[in-house]
């Protein structure tokens, strides 16, 4: 029987509804995240907001507090699900290494080499991004040259474009196609935290005024408010801190991965287009369509068991053992940094003729689907 792409998928993802939704392997943690949001809101609505209904002269003002809390929660959960269930920007795996590998392998075969992965082929390439040469690496697992800013997630076992990090709370990689929703999720969660905290504090204040007692007596009267406030206070450090950190990352056009690995400063960061343009890039550009059609019927080679694949004559055993290894491109960004710091403007000036810094075409060029297939367009083999 013909199988679909998601049924023969080599990454560690989980699929739902016949491949319509894609999650990370740790998608179960998503349920915990949902409960961590839902339970405190239910407690707040049932034990705090319910009493606040009678505290305002206008009947609707009291009700509005609960309604707003529920609406915000639905919004937060929807963003969480969207960030979690969509393709984060996975680069489809190639079924064989790029053609040039074979060429280079045969060329060096003259020198006594074999046509195997041990033959030193070009594992890096230089591409020009915003007028600066950037070295990109070949991924043994996915058998593609990774576009700049792409990284292989060891949890999902996929190369992901503009890889930010793998979020255990969302249970998915955060990358090119879901970063916007991820940021809206954490920032909306921050607002929800502040709102629930403030309304619980308001209730404590109302009890204090009504009973003319101390804050301790008021807290004793409504322990639910205290629990909810304490919970929101702790969460606020987490989601609020994360929101602040990502605001900084977005305004300087860095990913979490780049920031943690290389501490790219804004001067050396070749992707920085200025604060406003960086924010526009995250929020106002059209999100690229997925490169994967999980529901399409898989090409036949993918449906064969891997053991058989290794013995196929047309599939060169190039990459046999190496392919199994999960490669992380820890050094790439370092290279980017070194390259950009080197200010290698000789090479740059040639490139500047065709592209200006920050032009949108540059982004299209580097994300050209041909790129991952080893196209020589704007790519120089090293
Ligand atoms: Zn990969
Ligand atoms: Zn991942």
Spell out the blueprint of helices and strands.
Blueprint (H helix, E strand, L loop, with lengths): L13 E3 L4 E3 L4 H25 L6 H27 L4 E2 L7 H11 L14 E6 L2 E8 L4 E2 L5 E3 L4 E3 L4 E3 L4 E3 L4 H33 L3 H7 L1 H29 L4 H7 L12 H9 L16 H4 L2 H6 L8 H5 L5 H13 L2 H8 L7 H7 L2 H4 L6 E3 L1
Antiparallel strand pairs: 1-2, 3-8, 4-5, 4-11, 5-6, 7-8, 9-10
Helix pairs in contact: 1-2, 1-4, 1-6, 2-4, 4-5, 4-6
The structure holds zinc ion (2 copies).
Enzyme class: transferase
GO cellular component, one term: Golgi apparatus
GO molecular function, one term: protein-cysteine S-palmitoyltransferase activity
Structure description:
It is a multi-pass membrane protein. It is found in: Endomembrane system. It comes from Coptis chinensis. The chain has 382 residues and is α+β, with helices and mostly antiparallel strands. The protein has a domain of 217 residues. 51% of the residues lie in helices and 10% in strands. It contains 15 helices and eleven strands. The chain has a four-stranded antiparallel sheet with strand order 6-5-4-11. A three-stranded antiparallel sheet has the order 3-8-7, with no helix packed on it. Strands 1-2 form a two-stranded antiparallel sheet. A hairpin with a 2-residue loop joins strand 4 and strand 5. It is elongated, with a radius of gyration of 26 Å. 35% of the residues are buried. The C terminus is likely disordered. It binds zinc ion (2 copies). The site of one zinc ion has 5 residues, from loops.
């Amino acid at each position: 029987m013909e199988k679909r792409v998601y049924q023969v998928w080599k990454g560690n993802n989980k699929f739902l509804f016949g491949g319509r939704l894609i999650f990370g392997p740790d998608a179960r943690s998503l349920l915990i995240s949902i409960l961590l949001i839902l339970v405190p809101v239910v407690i707040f609505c049932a034990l705090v907001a319910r009493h606040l209904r009678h505290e305002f002269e206008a009947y609707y003002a009291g009700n509005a507090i609960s309604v707003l809390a529920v609406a915000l929660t639905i919004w937060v959960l929807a963003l969480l699900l969207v960030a979690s269930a969509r393709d984060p920007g996975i680069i489809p795996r190639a079924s064989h290494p790029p053609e040039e590998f074979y060429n280079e392998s045969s060329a060096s075969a003259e020198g006594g080499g074999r046509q195997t992965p041990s033959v030193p082929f070009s594992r890096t390439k230089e591409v020009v991004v915003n007028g600066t040469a950037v070295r990109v690496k070949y991924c043994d697992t996915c058998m593609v040259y990774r576009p700049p800013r792409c990284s292989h997630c060891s949890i999902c076992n996929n190369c992901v474009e503009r890889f930010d990090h793998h979020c255990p709370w969302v249970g998915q990689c955060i990358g090119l196609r879901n970063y916007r929703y991820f940021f809206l999720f954490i920032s909306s969660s921050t607002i929800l935290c502040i709102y629930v905290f403030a309304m619980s504090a308001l209730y404590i204040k109302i009890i204090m005024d009504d009973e003319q007692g101390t804050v301790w007596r008021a807290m004793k009267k409504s322990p639910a408010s205290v629990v909810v406030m304490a919970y929101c206070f702790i969460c606020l450090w987490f989601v609020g801190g994360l929101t602040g950190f990502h605001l900084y990352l977005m305004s300087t056009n860095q990913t979490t991965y780049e920031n943690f690995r290389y501490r790219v400063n804004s001067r050396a960061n070749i992707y920085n287009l200025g604060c406003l343009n960086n924010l526009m890039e995250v929020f106002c550009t059209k999100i690229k369509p997925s490169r994967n059609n999980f529901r399409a019927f898989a090409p036949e080679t993918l449906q064969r068991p891997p053991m058989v694949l290794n013995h196929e004559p047309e599939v060169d055993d190039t990459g046999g053992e190496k392919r199994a290894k999960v490669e992380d491109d820890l050094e790439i960004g370092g290279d980017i940094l070194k390259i950009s710091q080197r200010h290698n403007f000789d090479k740059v000036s040639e490139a500047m003729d065709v592209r200006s810094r920050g032009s949108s075409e540059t982004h299209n060029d580097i994300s050209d689907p041909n790129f991952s297939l080893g196209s020589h367009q704007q790519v120089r083999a090293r």
